[in-house]
């Protein structure tokens, strides 16, 4: 689904197709979306903590997929809350002590590793591999016993950026089962920067985590039935952002119909404006799966400023960030990317509103009798639309699809336009009063 300016005709056709599908999905999936409540219903949500202490419970539960399936999962939840996929997003400050208390309700031992963090301790001892009597490794770190064990991990938060936390015990199986979450380390004194560089500043109202993963439902069924796991037949069928597959990715955080999948993945921004909207959004990509996820937003590239918790900078502080149209996220990797939308040169509310004119009837999109596609390439005020139509656009905003470009990963069990896919919504520069 790459779009280029050279393929104008095909691009327009594709836009019609995608627009149709998206508007249908948006109508079906996002009834409660609201720009007024954007800060609470969209974007990164930090788990509650006192003095950077988190109480997590490893447990089991079910999540739903858009094709009506139900998947048995293991995951971390807040001990004060319930089962959720993925685990809670842990937000901490670089250089400060972090405590994670793991309580285990699973029928086998489990643990947490914090890749990228140094000096991790487990119940006061250095975190280190655990061996059985014959020297075989049973866990990457000290684990909590099955059925009610617990273990306390401590470390000092390292370099600012984004990290996975995940099971270090029987990792192939337990991580596949869902034992993973995001750790966001913020620079001390600069919660609005990705790293310690001033040029990594972002708008805290537009901060997003995209935790990418995959599920082989047959393997999960085997675990649920206490059957042996057959890795020779492993095949992922579901592909997720934050534990949800498209179109559930578009629904707001804590959507009532996704009780154990609290995190949405809709990116909702306005165009860059030097005075009213100067700072970009940030998207923190993480891969908890087994293969590369070539994540590909349409319509704009993104600026990669951090990988694996390290700022992209030279030894003399040269800026080594770069623009990328396809964000390759490797297994275990994190990529932090800044993103803004440049439309200011086209649009001015008073001097150049670019009114949307009604195109020829042959250029209008008519589904059944009544859905209208404006053909306008510009963001702006919506203006009048023909009467007796179904209106799928609130205020002149754009929706651009963003998805894994390994198209198998953009499916729900093979059904396309699902899986690891979401939408970037760009409101007109003046906002979306129609909401
Ligand atoms: Cu595409």
Explained architecture:
The protein has 435 residues and is mainly beta. It has a domain at 53-191: Immunoglobulin-like (Sandwich). The protein is 9% helix and 29% strand. It contains four helices and 25 strands. The chain has helices at 8-29, 38-41, 171-176, 217-224, and strands at 53-64, 70-78, 90-93, 97-104, 121-122, 125-126, 130-131, 137-139, 150-156, 161-166, 180-186, 207-215, 238-241, 267-269, 281-287, 293-297, 302-307, 310-311, 322-324, 327-329, 334-339, 398-404, 411-412, 415-416, 421-426. The strands form six sheets. Strands 12, 13, 15, 17, 18, 19 and 21 form a seven-stranded mixed beta sheet that branches. The chain has a six-stranded mixed beta sheet with strand order 2-1-4-9-5-6. It is globular. It starts with 7 loop residues before the first helix and ends in a 9-residue tail after the last strand. The structure holds copper (II) ion. Copper (II) ion (CU) binds at residues 1-2, 296, 298, 403, 405. Residues 1-2, 296, 298, 403, 405 line the site of copper (II) ion.
